[in-house]
């Protein structure tokens, strides 16, 4: 390629001179480029079609997955509601019956809950950092926990049964083959306390507070076949209010937290929010006041508010304690006994600490048991 300068009337102009061979090559390049441009739209169209088909397939699979996930959640919620209502009706009948019916039902629940607890202790997540108790000790402890409510009803107190059980279990661990570990002793003793000792306070609350609830309006119209006037004791009324308040707290916290929950409550249970917790507290106190007005116990509104406040924090603490155990164990549910709910501990974790707090409140802080 050469550059020349030409002068004419319009002024100097620069001219490029291209050799003939280079001109032929340039023409061939332009021809190839033109052919490529002519063929390229078809290739682009094919690629676009392929991309569209892939995107459509991906979109369809995503929609199918979302539909199946939605159906699974709907089915899970349906099971949760159905079995929750069944448990609620059954529990209401057991609470009204009281006596040995209430005690034996609680003993069965305690036995299953203790088995779930010791399985959690033996799980890979917890057992990695500690030595779990031997299986025979876990089974013996489960039986002892189930016997504690029965002994509480029979003897009227828990002290002797708990002390004797702790001594027997400690001796069994210390005399086992190999090297006993403190982790075995601590996890076993906590199991006796958590699954056996604490639930016994529901026996003391329901069956131990036998003072008649004289001001309760339901007494006058209560059928004789269902126990008559003597059926309605302070223990029955206090148990009904406590259980109903916990149910209301769980329901309000779940619904409000799902709809408006934004601020996490604690890292132990990531799904719990401050919004849901406050809604649960409000629902618990409101239920306690309404039932106190309906059943005329306790007669003081402030006592009803305090009773609801105490029930809520007992249920929340029990829920978080079980969540901490499951988190360390690396499992979502403690068991699979109840469809839609998990295990016994998943369903009744809110009641474990509440019985002791409710009984202590009525026994110690309410003059004349609130009558």
Automatic annotation (TrEMBL):
Pfam families (alphabetical): CTP_transf_1
Query: Where in the cell?
Result: Membrane
What are the transmembrane regions? 81-114, 154-175, 187-205, 232-256, 277-295, 351-370
Q: A biological process (GO) annotation for this entry?
A: phospholipid biosynthetic process
EC identifiers of the protein: 2.7.7.41
Can you state which reaction this protein catalyses? a 1,2-diacyl-sn-glycero-3-phosphate + CTP + H(+) = a CDP-1,2-diacyl-sn-glycerol + diphosphate
Named from the GO MF annotations, one term is: phosphatidate cytidylyltransferase activity
Pathway the protein acts in: Lipid metabolism; Phospholipid metabolism; CDP-diacylglycerol biosynthesis; CDP-diacylglycerol from sn-glycerol 3-phosphate: step 3/3
Q: State if Protease is listed as a keyword.
A: no
Tell me the membrane topology, using the record's own terms. Answer: Multi-pass membrane protein
**UniProt keywords, alphabetically:** Lipid biosynthesis, Lipid metabolism, Membrane, Nucleotidyltransferase, Phospholipid biosynthesis, Phospholipid metabolism, Transferase, Transmembrane, Transmembrane helix
Write down the InterPro entries for this protein, in alphabetical order: PC_trans
* A GO cellular component annotation in the UniProt record: membrane
Q: Tell me if Transmembrane is a UniProt keyword of this record.
A: yes
Similarity-based family: Belongs to the CDS family.
This chain belongs to the protein called Phosphatidate cytidylyltransferase
């Amino acid at each position: 390629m050469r550059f020349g300068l030409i002068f004419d009337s319009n002024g100097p102009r620069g001219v490029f001179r291209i050799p003939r061979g280079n001109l032929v090559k340039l023409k061939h390049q332009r021809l190839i480029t033109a052919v490529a441009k002519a063929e390229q739209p078809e290739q682009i169209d094919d690629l676009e079609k392929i991309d569209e088909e892939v995107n459509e397939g991906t979109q369809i699979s995503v929609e199918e997955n979302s539909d199946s996930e939605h159906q699974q959640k709907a089915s899970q919620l349906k099971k949760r509601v159905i079995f929750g209502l069944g448990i609620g009706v059954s529990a209401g009948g057991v609470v009204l019956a009281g006596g040995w019916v209430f005690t034996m039902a609680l003993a069965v629940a305690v036995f299953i809950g203790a088995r779930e607890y010791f399985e959690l202790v033996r799980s890979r997540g917890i057992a990695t950092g500690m030595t779990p108790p031997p299986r025979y000790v876990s089974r013996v402890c489960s039986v002892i926990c189930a016997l504690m409510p029965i002994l509480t009803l029979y003897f009227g107190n828990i002290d002797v049964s708990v002390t004797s059980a702790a001594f027997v279990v400690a001796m069994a661990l210390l005399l086992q083959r190999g090297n006993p570990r403190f982790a075995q002793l601590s996890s076993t003793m906590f199991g006796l306390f958590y699954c056996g000792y604490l639930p016994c306070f529901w026996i003391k609350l329901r069956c131990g507070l036998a003072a008649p609830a004289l001001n309760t309006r339901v007494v006058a119209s209560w059928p004789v076949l269902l126990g008559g006037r003597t059926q309605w004791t302070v223990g029955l009324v206090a148990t009904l209010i406590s259980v109903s308040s916990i149910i209301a707290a769980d329901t309000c916290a779940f619904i409000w937290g799902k709809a408006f929950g934004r601020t996490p409550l604690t890292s132990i249970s990531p799904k719990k929010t401050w919004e849901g917790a406050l809604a649960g507290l409000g629902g618990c106190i409101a239920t306690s006041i309404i039932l106190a007005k309906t059943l005329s116990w306790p007669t003081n509104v402030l006592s009803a508010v305090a009773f609801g406040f105490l029930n809520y924090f007992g249920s929340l603490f029990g829920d978080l304690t079980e969540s901490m155990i499951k988190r360390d164990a690396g499992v979502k549910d403690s068991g699979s006994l109840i469809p839609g709910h998990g295990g016994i501990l998943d369903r009744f974790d809110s009641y474990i600490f509440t019985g002791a707090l409710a009984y202590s409140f009525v026994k110690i802080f309410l003059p004349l048991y609130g009558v």
